UniProtKB/TrEMBL annotation:
Stored NCBIfam families: PRK09191.1 (NF006623)
Region spans: Disordered: 68-87
Origin superkingdom: Bacteria
Residues with the 4-aspartylphosphate modification: 194
Keyword Phosphoprotein: yes
GO biological process: phosphorelay signal transduction system
CDD domains given in the database record: REC_PhyR
Keywords for this protein: Phosphoprotein
SMART domains: REC (SM00448)
InterPro entries on file: Bact_response_regulator, CheY-like_superfamily, PhyR_sigma2, PhyR_sigma4, RNA_pol_sigma_r3/r4-like, Sig_resp-reg_PhyR, Sig_transdc_resp-reg_receiver
Protein name: Response regulator
Domain Response regulatory: 144-257
Length: 266
């Protein structure tokens, strides 16, 4: 099997990580593109002493870590935006390596050992970095959250996680129409949206309707994230895989709000 064939199944998940790390679909995808270009340009330098997924993320990390903090994203081919300026304000108080440790373990499912390999830290240090990231992000971000989910137990679980993080829940919608109506009545600061809803309507369509009226960060929840990361249509920046762990939801919420202008501290 060629190297390309070995890496292909892992690309959707690397794109998810890159987008969550940068807070931007376009910037994240540009970093992934740069990673693949590096692999093609120097295949002999690709890490062969680890599994392909770990080697792919390691190559990505090398490119990410070579980017200077004050131009995060620009080296991947795009001019900085206002959301990046907002992020820079927060990164002055939160080291990028802390966010990487959190996302690699909580969202991408790497062990502390593998995350340590990827960011060049010991497993014990990874634990410390995760604690630092969560503590700092939770102090900086508070929001009202709309949950779009038709499974009662999952919706209750999400509500508990959201409230435990210190956020308020504006409502729980089970259909597209309910979601749009609730968002109009009480505009949320964050949306958590399932893909398939109770009346066979689409969470993607519901979010599209909401975003046509207000600007709000969105986290999609699905059992098949790779189906939303095909590169063939507009795709989510933040994506949670079902069944999810509490830490995954916590990391995704924190990171989505990290880049949202409405949660900047006074």
């Amino acid at each position: 099997m060629s190297l390309g064939q070995q890496l292909a199944p892992h690309l959707p998940f690397l794109r998810r990580y890159a987008r969550a790390l940068t807070g931007s679909q376009s910037h994240g995808d540009n970093f992934v593109r740069a990673t693949l270009e590096a692999v093609v340009a120097a295949p002999d330098e690709f890490p062969r002493d680890v599994e392909p997924r770990l080697g792919l993320y390691k190559t990505f990390q090398a490119i990410w870590q070579s980017t200077s903090d004050d131009r995060e994203g620009d080296s991947a081919g795009e001019v900085g935006s206002s959301s990046e300026t907002i992020a820079q304000s927060r990164m002055a108080r939160l080291t990028p390596v802390s966010r990487q440790a959190l996302l690699l373990t909580a969202m991408e499912g790497f062990s502390n050992e593998d995350a340590g390999y990827l960011i060049g830290e010991s497993p014990a240090r990874v634990d410390e970095l995760i604690d630092e990231a969560l503590s700092e992000i939770e102090r900086q971000t508070r929001a009202t959250v709309l949950i779009i989910e038709d499974e009662p137990m999952i919706a209750m679980d999400l509500e508990t996680i959201v409230r435990d993080l210190g956020h308020d829940v504006t409502g729980i919608a089970v259909t597209r129409d309910e979601a749009v109506a609730q968002a109009r009545e009480m505009p949320p600061g964050l949306v958590l949206a399932d893909i398939q809803l109770a009346d066979d309507s689409s969470g993607i369509d519901a979010v599209g309707d909401i975003l046509s009226e207000i600007t709000v960060p969105v986290i999609f929840i699905t059992a098949f994230p790779e189906r939303l990361l095909t590169g063939q249509r507009p795709e989510p920046t933040f994506l949670i895989t079902k069944p999810f762990q509490r830490a995954t939801v916590k990391a995704a919420i924190s990171q989505a709000l990290f880049f949202d202008r409405s949660t900047l501290p006074e």
